[in-house]
What does this fold into?
Amino acid sequence: MRMSRLFGRTLREPPSEAQTPGHQLMLRAAIARPLAAGLYTWLPLGFRVAKKVEQIIREEMDRIGCQEMEMPVLTPAEVWKTTGRWDLLEPITFRTKDHNGREFMVSYTHEEVVHLHAINEILSYRQLPAMVYHFQSKGRDETRPRAGLLRTREFVMKDAYSFDMDQAGLERSYAAQHGAYVRIFRRMSLDAISVESDTGAMGGDVAHEFQVLTEAGEDRLAICSRGDYSANLEKAARKIDDASEPFPKAARSEIATPGTTTIEALQASLKLPASAFLKTLLVKDRDGKPVAVVLPGDRNLNEAKLRKRLGMSDVQFAGDADFARAGGVAGFVGPVGLGAPVLVDTAVVAGRGYVAGANKKDTHLKDVALGRDFTAERADRRVDLHDVIEGDACPTCGAPLAVKRGVEVGNIFAYGTYYSEKMNATYLAEDGTRKLFVGGSYGIGVGRSVQTIIETSHDDKGIIWPFAVAPYEVHVVGLPMNDETVHAAADALVATLEEKGVQVLYDDRDESAGVKFADADLIGIPFRVTVSRRSLQSKSVELKPRASSEAELVPHDIAADRLVDIVRRAREAAAR
RNA sequence: CGGGGUGUAGCGCAGCUUGGUAGCGCGCAGCGUUCGGGACGCUGAGGUCCCGGGUUCAAGUCCCGGCACCCCGACCA
It folds into this structure.
């Protein structure tokens, strides 16, 4: 490809909208362009990367016997109604109607559709297990797209689906996908770690996310410093000593705290650490009734954990009416004498005397102890509802946990019979009965992976593409192009390389050396070859890997062979 | 969906406080000089100042309403 013909130009300065390094470089290097919020066009350079990423995924899916197919982007409403997701997904999906008024959804994912096909194609246990996948655009009307390709409203996902006879089969399929994911991300040079993730409102048993640690990421992860544990903060736990303390000597007593409604204000006026207080939040349960959540003052509520506990899709905080109903006073709510069920966080130490709201204006209680002044009433109301923070103890080994940011490039999810039950998706078992498919789904975001590679593989000059996904393999720079000898030599080298199947980006522009080298560094092709007046005087060309600061001179007459050889080796290494 | 911010040439920005008919750098086009790390000179093209309404002799600038985009939070590959 001649750069003078390339559709897409590099930008000297990053557009102001771009904040993360990957987003800036993606735009500057002409990988993709925004069309509207969360909608991106791949430019030719970026499209080549996306196709290479897809090909790696394809090869690894095929390797584990997962079969490629393709399901439509537009999906009829009826399918979604069978599982209740037509209504559930309403706020975050794009919908349309055909001319007859039939409703459609731009596919958000394909569990329903693939089950529909499985019902038709898989009649007998003899056809199981089965695994299929496709690359398809997904539409999600995210309320907040961000960071370029990291979260868009339309994106191509590789989504795979497994169908098994039973739980043991599902576990085998799941393990196969997990193994494929490890290979896939390694091949694209993404250092993805698999972390336990929240299974969300769908229930299900097991789910892992493949996360790449980078500051640009939007997920927060707890990671054991000894490597024994890693989990999304949505579900991350920590080791807590459940040893209780002796009750305080004093009985609980009122203290006047006029106008002091926040933990911060209480800390200041009572000169006590945040951990000396109880924070009591009033939320609504599924029936709209008030429920109190009690946490130590130095711990934050983890909404994902609470949602899961309440079985709700979002946390609804109490309004004035609920406060009245529960007998609480906003700013002075406490667990003692409250007319609502109380969920007590596991970080609240039994027996310890805390300062808590008195459910009375301008008043708190001191020496309030769990087990004496209030209780969780039932074992299932003593629950982990707080955020893990940096330095907490690992739940497996007790070593300190670190909290880091990550990008979720893929996830795998064993949902079991969640969909097959609702869709009555069954097969005929060996014993002659009809049994439900036991399934899992496995996604990888292609565009997100591409930008994540940039986020984690660049320097201050530009992208450093891993060979396996680079848009081109060799970048030939002619310098200067108005020198006939140089022009002819560069043309000839490019022609030879292309003839031998090397993917070449050829900077044939009449630009200064500075511009061409700066662009080469920005675009980040793995091998740069400079054919210049100077190099030709010593009958050589200059070879410089993008990732290295060292350049070497290669004799002109063997340059093509040498490059073909280098590329061949690099391809072999990248395929492993 | 809550909070914050920004919309002026392809990109980065100034001008707005104090209203007077739009500017800088880069990029782009032509010519010439240059040619190994974002060269130089000359000439030139390019603007519904986000949109709509209002105030005014006069609005990029002031007022009202909308829209778009970005950032932080809640949700996802």
